[in-house]
Design brief:
The complex is a heterodimer.
Chain A lengths: L1 H36 L2 E6 L2 E6 L3 H8 L2 H32 L6 H15 L2 H9 L11 H8 L4 H18 L2 H12 L3 H9 L4 H30 L4 H10 L5 H35 L1
Antiparallel strand pairs in A: 1-2
Helix pairs in contact in A: 2-12, 3-7, 3-8, 3-10, 4-8, 8-10, 10-12, 11-12
Chain B lengths: L18 H25 L3 H4 L14 H12 L4 H32 L5 H12 L7 H10 L17 H12 L3 H9 L4 H12 L1 H17 L2 H5 L9 H9 L6 H33 L7
Helix pairs in contact in B: 1-13, 3-13, 4-7, 4-10, 4-12, 5-7, 7-10, 10-13, 12-13
The chains are: A mainly alpha, B mainly alpha.
Membrane topology (chain B): Multi-pass membrane protein
Keywords (chain B): Cell membrane, Membrane, Transmembrane, Transmembrane helix, Transport
Protein name (chain B): ABC-type glycerol-3-phosphate transport system permease component
């Protein structure tokens, strides 16, 4: 039996090995190297890269001196807390609607996924420059004016942010919709019939049947959304890191430190949200 | 309410019960489609309409001039545009194909095989998802230099193959395949290669289609490898070419706008085609996969 087990694990390793090699060379090693650099003062000279060990100075600088970084970081966290739940709920609703048998279903699916295709890359940047990611002439609507006149309330701030960025938020939901639809397609129709016979309404069978069985995919989607939201190439924090990479006084060491701080924050946000969801999920559904 | 008309994708008849869905879907769809329509119209605008303020949504005097400029200018800079386009197409095809194979294989092993470090590998992968890609640019450059890949065609391909998000998604899907199915195949004498090609791949087609779309976008839109690792103009990609059109450095910001608009459309259309081809895969396989 032991021989079979070793063979099994060997085959397993064989299947992962191409991935491990690619990952180790082009992702894992550069990551570790940037951790090393984050404790250094890096100077790029004609003869190569010179490093000087400065302990935690880079990290200290980020929090004490660099006001832009901390400011953008808090703004990013605020926006993420608002956006992520909206993206998840929105994509779930759209996925449920698109899972119904309606006319032009294929066309609708294409339209809702399309933004993802252009949301990365140069096309998106151009669209933002043109200002068409916001609702046109929104400033003229009464509701917008009413909100801007009293901008101090917390709720007002959220609403204002939502109105301004609605298209952007909706645009982040394409892949999530796709994942939800794939999961919905896998659901057993018989369960719904059974629930119906037992007298459950559509509303009840959504809460008691659909949602619990979608639960693993909701977690997957939450992780995906947080990651995509943070890694989006036009994200202000990433822009800040990139500009610091080639500044003379800060340089690559500092940029590495910034990325590691950012990384830790994202990891923490993920751990918190997924942890909370799993706990709650276990309580409700098991 | 959803029981009529069997398994057809689009029911052929409109039914009153569908009305409530349309009430939600149509406004949202219009809302989301607007920018895309804009990309199309923008490419055909003559120069005065491109710079009109406030920007106009529809084109009034459509023209092919932007496309003519785009193809014409390329010849003047020494390397024809078709060369960039050819590079991009070859690179994209190879990367998408290999990424799918590598991530599904790894996903299968991490999900259904037992070996040491299995969990650790997947956790490292999830952590790697969260790291700012720009921060690894210089260390990555050093490695690529060390491997002698600077100015090599392979530099566009190799760094993109191990895509963390791909492995993440495909593993989640393979997790949902019941172990009994694989055990049963084993009892019938199926080898690992057999199980992989005849069971795993057909069952996770939706995930594969998703990875294909994601990796396609990643490669097709990537400018990083052309900017950092390649000096030879003839080896650069189309997205790099497009980004040079509007850049300040070349000094043709005004003239470049029209060409950039046309190039955005050319960049965008393959994405559209890929998605339309693959989306039917995503939508239909799961329904008939036989997993309960």
């Amino acid at each position: 039996m032991k021989g079979l087990k070793t063979k099994n694990s060997l085959v397993g390793l064989l299947f992962v090995s191409p991935w491990i090699i690619g990952f180790a060379i082009f992702t894992a090693f550069p990551l570790l190297y940037s951790l090393f650099l984050s404790f250094q003062k890096v100077k790029i000279t004609t003869s190569g890269i010179q490093t000087e060990f400065i302990r935690f100075e880079n990290f200290q600088y980020a929090f004490v001196v660099d006001a832009i970084y901390t400011e953008r970081l808090t703004k990013y966290l605020e926006e993420m807390i608002i956006s992520v739940p909206i993206i998840i709920v929105f994509s779930l609703i759209i996925a449920l609607l698109l899972n119904q048998r309606i006319k032009f279903r294929g066309m609708f699916r294409t339209i809702f996924f399309l933004p993802v295709i252009i949301a990365s890359g140069p096309v998106m940047k151009e669209l933002i420059d043109q200002g068409i990611t916001t609702i046109p002439t929104i400033e003229k609507y009464a509701i917008y004016q009413a909100l801007t006149e009293s901008p101090d309330g917390f709720l007002n701030g959220i609403l204002l942010y939502l109105i301004k960025n609605l298209i952007m938020i909706l645009w982040f939901s394409g892949v999530q919709i796709l994942i939800f639809i794939a999961a919905l397609q896998k659901m057993d129709k018989q369960i719904y019939e059974a629930a119906k016979i037992d007298g459950a309404s559509n509303w009840e069978s959504f809460w008691k049947v659909t949602l619990p069985s979608l639960f693993p995919m909701i977690i997957v989607n939450t992780i995906y959304t947080i990651v995509m939201y943070s890694m989006f190439s036009l994200n202000p924090i990433i822009e800040h890191i990139q500009t610091n990479m080639f500044k003379v006084d800060t340089g690559f060491g500092y940029a590495s430190a910034l990325s590691w701080i950012y990384f830790l924050i994202i990891a923490l946000a993920l751990a918190l949200s997924v942890g909370a969801m799993t706990l709650k999920g276990k309580k409700n559904y098991n | 309410m959803s029981a009529f008309h069997g398994t057809k994708m689009n029911p052929s008849k409109f039914h009153k019960s569908q009305l409530k869905f349309f009430v939600f879907l149509i406004p949202l769809a219009v809302f989301m489609a607007l920018p895309i329509v804009y990309v199309f119209f923008h490419a055909f605008k003559p120069i005065d309409e491109l710079f009109a303020y406030p920007p106009r949504f529809f084109v009034e005097k459509p023209t092919w001039q932007n496309f003519a400029d785009l193809f014409g200018r390329a010849n003047a800079s020494g390397v024809p545009m078709s060369r960039y386009l050819f590079n991009s197409i070859v690179i994209t095809l190879i990367v998408v194909f290999l990424t799918i194979i590598i991530s599904t294989m790894a996903g299968y092993a991490l999900s259904k095989k037992e070996f040491k470090l299995k969990k650790t590998i997947f956790e490292i992968n999830t952590l790697a998802l969260m790291f700012v890609p720009a921060a690894v640019a210089i260390p990555r450059y050093l490695i690529i230099d060390e491997l002698g890949l600077i100015n090599n065609f392979l530099v566009h391909i190799l760094p993109l193959l191990a895509m963390p998000i791909g492995l993440f998604l495909v593993k989640q899907f393979i997790d949902q395949i019941p172990n009994e199915l694989i055990e049963a195949a084993k009892l019938d004498g199926a080898s690992d290669i057999h199980i992989f090609t005849k069971i795993i791949i057909p069952l996770v087609k939706p995930a594969i289609a998703t990875i294909a779309i994601l990796s396609f976008q990643l490669v097709w839109n990537s400018v990083e490898s052309s900017t950092l690792y390649v000096n030879d103009e003839g080896l650069k990609t189309f997205s790099f070419y497009m980004s040079t059109l509007t850049s300040q450095a070349t000094g043709n910001v005004v003239a470049g706008q029209g060409m950039a608009a046309a190039a955005s459309l050319i960049m965008f259309v393959p994405n559209l085609i890929i998605f339309i081809v693959l989306q039917s895969q995503v939508m239909n396989t799961m329904a008939h996969s036989g997993i309960k």
